């Protein structure tokens, strides 16, 4: 269940930080995938 957590966390993080965090989170998910 780490995949769902990462995606959900990425959503709110993007609005809080910006595109920078979105890219970072997206990269982490891609590696786990």
What brief labels describe this structure?
33 residues, mainly alpha, elongated
Q: What sort of overall outline do the alpha carbons produce when their principal axes are compared?
A: elongated
Number of strands: 0
Spans of at least 5 consecutive residues whose pLDDT stays below 50 are none
- Largest sheet geometry: none
Q: Can you walk me through this structure?
A:
The protein has one domain. The protein has two helices and no strands. Helix content is 88%, strand content 0%. The mean pLDDT is 57. The protein is mostly helical.
Question: Can you lay out the helices and strands and say which pair or pack?
Answer:
Layout: H1 2-16, H2 19-32
Summarize the structure.
The chain is mostly helical.
């Amino acid at each position: 269940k780490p995949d769902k957590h990462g995606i959900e966390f990425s959503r709110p993080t993007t609005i809080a930080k910006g595109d920078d965090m979105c890219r970072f989170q997206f990269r982490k998910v891609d590696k786990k995938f």
